[in-house]
Amino acid sequence: MSADGRPGSGKDAVRLVLEAVARETDVEEIVREFGPLGRFSNGDAGAALLGVAAEALELGQFTRSDPLRYLGLRERYLPEVDVSGKNENYKSDWTLRAVAALAGGVEPGVEDQLRFWRIMDLERWAVHAVVAYVRAAADHTGQTVSQICVAVAEEHGFALRT
């Protein structure tokens, strides 16, 4: 946290989002909680969250012979999210695919996207991706959402406060 109590780093974003996801907070409420990060970020928080989503995807133990089906992913794991319009659909789709690329070892070109997006857009859609891939991993492995969040937090060297 910064001196004035505002979260201000990628690590702050990871903690805030994982704790909220572990509590199964509504995804749009997480985005609202996350809002202060976006106003004081240079994109680091969004990039960190894409990495968190990729870690969750890896914890899901998906393989080429037992893949996570991309078609309908958003509808299955983010049913409460209303994505409307060409721009929102593009950003949501790009973010979900960027996470899969990261998990596969391909850098998706976040910097290139940030030239055309507002930083807060990246962070919003990255929060959605974390929620979707944590839920998918929990569903596929039989673990709880909270267990997946705890495992990701441990990878980042901290324990969750839920």
Description:
The protein is mostly helical and 162 residues long. The chain has one domain. Helices cover 65% and strands 0% of the residues. The chain is built from 8 helices and no strands. Helix 1 crosses helix 3 (44-59) and helix 5 crosses helix 7. The radius of gyration is 15 Å and the shape is globular. 41% of the residues are buried. The model is unreliable at 1-7 (pLDDT under 50).
Give the topology, please.
Layout: H1 10-22, H2 27-39, H3 44-59, H4 73-77, H5 85-103, H6 110-114, H7 119-141, H8 145-155
Helix pairs in contact: 1-2, 1-3, 1-8, 2-7, 3-5, 3-7, 3-8, 5-7, 7-8
In a nutshell, what does this entry contain?
The chain is an all-alpha fold. The protein is 65% helix and 0% strand.
Features:
162 residues, mainly alpha, 8 helices, 65% helix
Give start-end ranges of low-pLDDT stretches.
1-7
Radius of gyration: 15 Å
Structural class: mainly alpha
* Separate helix tally: 8
Strand content: under 5%
User: Would you list the SSEs in sequence order as H and E?
Assistant: HHHHHHHH
Largest sheet: none
The total of beta strands comes to 0
The structural domain count equals: 1
Which word captures the global form? Answer: globular
Give the fraction of residues assigned to helices: 55-70%
Q: What average pLDDT do the residues reach?
A: 87
Distance between the termini: 18 Å
